[in-house]
Amino acid sequence: MNAVGKKFNHSFNYEYALVGAAAIDKTGSPLPDETLIKCKASDAVLFGAIGDPKYDNDPSARVRPEQGLLAMRSELGLYANVRPVTTFPSLLDRSPLKREILDGVDILMVRELTGGIYFGKPQGRSEDGKTAYDSCVYSKFEIERVVRLACEYALKRKGKVTVVDKANVLATSRLWRETSKEIVHDYPGIEMDFLFVDNAAMQLIQNPGRFDVIVTENMFGDILSDEASVITGSLGLLPSASIGSSTSVFEPVHGSYPQAAGKNIANPLGTILSAAMLLETGLNLTGESEALKRAVEKSLEAGMVTEDLDRSNPCSTNMVGDWISEYILHN
Ligand code: IPM
Ligand code: MG
């Protein structure tokens, strides 16, 4: 960000705040008020990764790092998570899929983020503790705004939107389908199709090139976006944006990597590309974002990569970051 600022004559002001495991350790809360206040007062948020192994082994712990993330989504009204899934030519051989299947894959996953089974009430246990329930709830309004966002994105891409649901079983999915069909009338340039989620999971592996923009509800999107993120073979490189009514949040798709703490080996590209999305979507600085993305591509071509991408001759995290900063400043 500093290199981009220097090159393009901006000065960015940073505030730092805790969330997740680090925030619980220090304050007892996964999303301290101070953090939320700072987020709301900012133009954009760059989010690290949350989670710590000491919480993973106890899914029933009363206070958990994930609560910080879910509270942040809800408090900031982040109703859509947007994940571009693109291939990098120099990394195609790392994909679990055959090269010919991946040719030209360029997908934008749009996941609804503040509704559905993640937030639906009632949720809980019966009195005797022997029955548990979650509720999947969607209003037309919640569906409409995220489907519209997907259509807007598609207009700038190949113009195709695939709505993923389970309308053969779920009432909420039938409302998704009905609402999407109404909305697409407002977008004459858009071609919309519908897939059941099980079929979509299969086609993402078999024929990922058929997709342009995918839009789906919260839980289906959680699952499919992880699936989509590994087919390109470069989970460590993928950025995401969570967009809402006020401040947007930008974060790498990968989780925290506690095994690497202090070793200077983690791949910084997911975060750097999230900063590129922040420049473009959060601050409307398109040229700046392009310059950053170009520098990342060049670093890959030059083989300036961390050990997850090159075991035999790896660079440290700092080396990759410094190389990219230098490239931006001098090109
Ligand atoms: C994600 C994560 C979160 C989710 C977890 C950590 C609560 O898997 O961002 O996809 O399920 O939304
Ligand atoms: Mg997930």
Structure, described:
It is built from 13 helices and ten strands. The chain is an alpha/beta fold. It has a domain at 79-233: Isopropylmalate Dehydrogenase, CATH 3.40.718. It has an eight-stranded mixed beta sheet with strand order 1-10-9-2-3-8-6-7, sandwiched between helices. Helix 8 links the parallel strand 6 and strand 7. Helix 11 runs antiparallel to helix 12. It is globular, with a radius of gyration of 20 Å. The mean pLDDT is 94. The structure holds 3-isopropylmalic acid (IPM) and magnesium ion. Magnesium ion binds next to helix 10.
Biggest beta sheet summary: 8 strands, mixed
The small-molecule ligands in this entry are: 3-isopropylmalic acid, magnesium ion
User: What is the fourth-level CATH superfamily of the domain at 79-233?
Assistant: Isopropylmalate Dehydrogenase
Taken as a percent bin, the fraction of beta residues is 5-15%
Q: Output the helix-strand order.
A: HHHEHHEHEEEHEHEHEHEEHHH
For the termini, the CA-CA separation is 15 Å
What is the correct CATH architecture of the domain at 79-233?
Answer: 3-Layer(aba) Sandwich
The backbone outline, from C-alpha atoms, is: globular
Q: How do the strands of the widest beta sheet line up side by side? A: 1-10-9-2-3-8-6-7
Helix content: 40-55%
Poorly predicted ranges: none
